[in-house]
Amino acid sequence: MTRPTKDDVERLSRGEPSRARIGNRRIGHRLTQKERLLLEAAKRQGFLKLPVTGIRPNVVNVYRLWCAAEGRDCIVKGGPVSDG
Question: Are residues 6 and 62 in contact, defined by beta-carbon separation less than 8 angstroms?
Answer without folding.
Answer: no
